Amino acid sequence: MDNNSKQVCLNYRTNEGYEVVVLKKISSDRLLIEFQDNYRHRREVDRSALRIGSVKNPFHRRAHGVGFIGVGKFLSSKNGKPVKEYKAWVRMIERCYSNKLHDRYPTYKNCTVHPDWHDYQAFAKWYTSQKYYDLDYALDKDLLVRGNKVYSEDNCCLLPAEINGLVEKLSSVSAIKIAAKWRGHINDRVYHALMNWTVADNN
């Protein structure tokens, strides 16, 4: 076994507060490390970054102490600007867990995000799989499940601004009119929820 493949096992602490173990020396400047938390994520890092503690843990709950970026193909930004799925995820987390926002919008105080969506990768996978996601549609939790307080894959959908702004004011008649107007520009779950608005009203 050569020197580059030997386990090194030096301990460091990052600026985010995580203990890190160096598992292997890849080269004179690159090291394989493992975060000593529940996820035990491993990654290659520069020796200099490890020395000053700037190595980032993808499972650090940096979004209001709840949300983390995770490991996967979905980036939070492109060309220096946040991508729309990341902005939607951050706003969702903020609505549920920001005390400052709750002071302005108290209706969000009892709302939560399903644990699966604490992981940005899981949310972004769902978001980008939605029909019309590339349009400026809003993330909604109330249309499909009346009175819903949990943001999750089962409960949420993407809505055009016109529909999103009227959810709380819809009558059975107006819902059917809007469904007809937007048919072909909303997904099937949204269309059927609007068409069945009278049934929901009676529950």
Helix-and-strand structural type: alpha+beta
Helix run count = 8
Distance between the termini: 69 Å
Assembly status: single chain
Largest sheet: 4 strands, antiparallel
Largest sheet: spatial strand order: 1-2-3-4
Strand content: 15-25%
Elements, N to C (H/E): EEEEHEEHHEHEEEHHHH
Shape: elongated
Alpha-carbon Rg, integer: 22 Å
Helical content band: 25-40%
Unreliable stretches (pLDDT < 50, length at least 5) are 1-5, 199-203
The total count of strands amounts to 10
Query: What is the overall pLDDT average?
Result: 92
What does this structure look like?
By secondary structure, the protein is an alpha+beta fold. The protein has a domain at 3-52. 32% of the residues lie in helices and 19% in strands. It is built from 8 helices and 10 strands. The chain has a 4-stranded antiparallel sheet. It has a two-stranded antiparallel ribbon with strand order 5-6. Strands 7-9 form a two-stranded parallel sheet. β3 (30-35) and β4 form a beta hairpin. α6 (172-182) runs antiparallel to α7 (188-195). The longest helix has 14 residues, at 84-97. It is elongated. The model is unreliable at 1-5 and 199-203 (pLDDT under 50).
